[in-house]
Write a structure and sequence with these properties.
Number of strands: 5
Distance between the termini: 97 Å
Strand content: 5-15%
Order of helices and strands: HHHHEHEHEHEEHHH
Helix content: 40-55%
Number of domains: 2
Radius of gyration: 36 Å
Length: 279
């Protein structure tokens, strides 16, 4: 008599409780299937699940232990009884795991994501210039935004970086352009840093400052190529042109091998429209 037979569910539960089922049915259905079915009620809440789980476990264990001595009289004898006892041990362990798992999911607090404010960049004594130094990445852009919010008097950015991520360089450029800031270089500004430099309302390089340009390439030959290098060069070349840079200068930039670095002199920067003020 199976539990899904109309009108036989209660009788089925009672007959197992009395230990009247054959050992194969006990192991496969009464122990394994019923224990699996208990997991379907985990969403009802821990205390409901705990009550149901323990109730089913008591029913499973009691009926199985009553059936085990009778199984010794079957043709399989000892093996049938061992199968029942093994099944009982298994579902006891399984039920304990279920209970602890549901408890952990309900009562353990999830780890909170760090939502602390980005670091603030150094600013000049007069509060009008911010020092943007380090690797060009998105965390640097977040730091720049936080610094601009904290110091609305900032009017210029002093860039000092050997480069980094092109896409982060574009993000920093947008931040600079939206705030209508001037850009200046008193040390060095290479590679992706030049994208940020070109966003300045006024752009200057002091006597010892250097700008360094080169074409693009994947930095790892094993990396999945998710964008076209020539297309990205064309995109940033168009950006340089929109900022007043000459076509001759732009062509020289992207003809420079990605492993190299072109450091144009002041005359090149002036003639190429890269700097807009003379220091």
């Amino acid at each position: 008599m199976l539990p899904f037979k109309p009108g036989g569910r209660v009788q089925y539960l009672n007959s197992h409780w009395r230990g009247e089922h054959p050992w194969g049915q006990i192991v496969l259905i009464n122990l394994l299937v019923f224990r699996w079915g208990v997991e379907l009620f985990a969403s009802l809440g821990f205390w409901v699940f705990l009550t149901l789980s323990i109730s089913v476990l008591v029913w499973q264990v009691t009926g199985s232990l009553r059936a085990a001595p009778r199984a010794l009289n079957d043709s399989s004898g000892l093996y049938s009884a061992l199968a029942i006892y093994s099944g009982v041990l298994f579902v006891v362990a399984w039920s304990a795991f279920q209970i602890f798992d549901v408890a952990a999911r309900q009562f353990t607090r999830p780890e909170l994501t760090d939502v602390s404010e980005p670091r603030l960049l150094e600013i000049s004594e007069d509060g009008r210039t911010v020092d943007l130094s380090g690797n060009i990445d998105f965390s640097l852009n977040a730091a720049l935004k936080a610094t601009l919010r904290a110091h609305p008097s900032i009017r210029a950015i002093d860039l000092n970086s050997e480069g980094g991520n092109v896409f982060a360089g574009r993000a920093i450029a947008l931040t600079i352009a939206s705030s209508k800031l001037a850009t200046q270089v008193t040390d060095r500004c290479y590679s992706a840093c030049t994208l940020a430099f070109m966003a300045g309302e006024q752009r200057s390089v002091d006597g010892i400052g250097e700008l360094g340009f080169h074409g693009y390439a994947f930095d790892n030959s094993q990396r999945v190529q998710t964008f076209d290098v020539n297309e990205q060069e064309s995109l940033d070349g168009g950006y340089f042109l929109s900022r007043g840079v000459t076509e001759t200068f732009v062509n020289r930039v992207f003809k420079t091998d990605a492993s190299g670095l072109w450091k144009p002199n002041r005359r090149d920067l002036e003639d190429g429209g890269v700097i807009t003020t003379n220091d």
